[in-house]
Specification:
Blueprint lengths: L7 H27 L7 H9 L18 H14 L1 H20 L2 H7 L12 E3 L15 E4 L4 E12 L6 E7 L10 E7 L5 E3 L13 E12 L3 E2 L5 H37 L1 E2 L2 E2 L4 H29 L5 H26 L9 H12 L6 H11 L1
Parallel strand pairs: 1-4
Antiparallel strand pairs: 2-3, 3-7, 4-5, 5-8, 6-7, 9-10
Helix pairs in contact: 1-3, 3-4, 3-6, 4-6, 6-7, 6-8, 6-9, 7-8, 8-9, 8-10
The structure holds flavin-adenine dinucleotide.
């Protein structure tokens, strides 16, 4: 049976996060977006702690209160409605947790997952991309060499990395071969914060998702015990694809929230703004655009829910997850572009919500694999 109705608990959670998004996340994020790049704002760490967001992604045996994927997508949509950058901080934590949940040992889970339930708020980092490119995972130059007495030595750099410098731990992907030996030698390692040999570059000044701080991490002869290798040696590529497959649907829900924010803003403005004595919404040229956006929003959300429902049911979701991310992130770009047009000169001011949404939307179709990469994945599944 298919039901599109939310349960009482889901509605209550949605309502609570909607008011947090409107009252706290959005006002703080507009302020942060307009400023110089900085570390994660303490007020956001407080929201993560107060709302117990990390508990939603951690199993009960490690202190969490995990949600089903469909329910998590509702959470993500509201966070994305408040600010896609804030939601991105949370999404990267979720990725790091996912890798450990999928491939990690019981000791790794017991050691690292409870760190994220710190009452002061905590995040983790997922470190895959390198300067040379993020689309081709086999092009990694970061290496991990097995050395003396069961230790690996890591060398290389990862960029851009959300939560760099703020994370409790880093899930870092490296090549354990001696050169470029392909996917079979990619592996993931958990690196606790403040491990000697890890350094951070300056925070990036970027056009969108400014609320999610990004920086380069440097690994210089970083020594890590082989017990921090996630899963059996050589399983890293599969682990990566499994982690990212889950994450993409949820990044799709962040984009639904972002697109919804832009569409609602445009509808509100179009109803209020009068030109030649009537609201501009009453012109078909504007009304049709809004109707299309509202329709596509419903479609995007249903794609996300379907992908998440398949995750909950342990059914194959690779193509659907990519479809959800592709469709929702492209919709976010369309909604913010049309929204800016509808707001006219009112949208062309800084700081302004539509301006921030537009810049965030552009970057949302790059993170988590670009739109072209999503199409490549979908095509392989047809
Ligand atoms: C704000 C932000 C935050 C990020 N945070 C993180 C993070 O926390 N951790 C992390 O690991 N990564 C992170 N990333 C990296 C992100 O995942 C990559 O940017 C993304 O995967 C694309 O890689 P690239 O930018 O290196 O593009 P490239 O791989 O260099 O590709 C360049 C262009 O070529 C296209 N292209 C490549 N191959 C093909 C092909 N075969 N066919 C058609 N087109 C192709 C791409 O789609 C893209 O348009 C972040 C990125 C951004 C923008």
């Amino acid at each position: 049976m298919i039901s599109f109705e939310l349960t009482k608990d889901q509605k209550a959670l949605q309502k609570r996060l909607h008011s947090i998004a409107l009252d706290k996340i959005r006002p703080y994020s507009l302020e942060i977006d307009a400023g110089r790049p900085g570390k994660i704002d303490k007020r956001f760490l407080e929201i993560i702690a107060q709302e117990n967001l990390n508990a939603f992604i951690i199993p009960e045996e490690y202190g969490g209160m995990p949600l089903k994927w469909v329910t998590l997508s509702i959470v993500m949509e509201e966070l994305g409605f408040g600010c896609a950058g804030f939601a991105g901080i949370y999404a990267q934590t979720l990725h790091a947790v996912s890798t450990i949940l999928i491939g990690g040992s019981t000791i790794q889970k017991k050691t690292f997952l409870p760190l994220l339930l710190n009452p002061s708020g905590a995040v983790a980092s997922f470190c895959l991309t390198e300067e040379k490119g993020g689309s081709d995972v086999s092009s990694f130059s970061t290496t991990a060499q097995l050395g003396e007495k069961g230790y690996y030595r890591l060398n290389g750099s990862k960029t851009p990395i959300i939560n760099a410098g703020d994370a409790e731990f880093y899930v870092v992907w490296a090549n354990t071969g001696t050169g470029r030996k392909g996917l079979a030698e990619i592996n993931a390692f958990i690196i606790p914060r403040d491990t000697p040999g890890m350094g951070y570059g300056g925070l990036h000044d970027k056009p969108g998702l400014r609320v999610a701080p990004t920086a380069t991490i440097f690994l210089e002869d970083l020594k890590i015990p082989s017990s921090n290798l996630v899963g059996p040696s050589g399983s890293g590529y599969l682990l990566f694809t499994q982690t990212i497959d889950r994450g993409r649907a949820l990044v799709g829900s962040i984009c639904v929230g972002l697109a919804r924010a832009a569409t609602e803003l445009a509808i509100e403005f179009a109803k209020e703004r009068h030109v030649r004595g009537r609201p501009i919404a009453s012109n078909q040229g504007i009304g049709f655009t809004l109707a299309e956006l509202a329709t596509e929003l419903e479609a995007a959300r249903l794609l996300v829910w379907k992908a998440c429902r398949r995750m909950d049911k342990h059914m194959d979701y690779t193509a659907l997850s990519s479809m959800a991310k592709l469709f929702a992130s492209e919709l976010a770009v369309r909604a913010t572009s049309q929204g800016m047009l509808i707001l006219g000169q009112k949208g062309c001011k800084r700081p302004s919500l539509m301006d921030k949404l537009l810049r965030d939307a552009q970057m949302s179709r790059i993170i988590e694999g670009t739109s072209q990469v999503q199409k490549m994945i979908i095509a392989t599944q047809l």
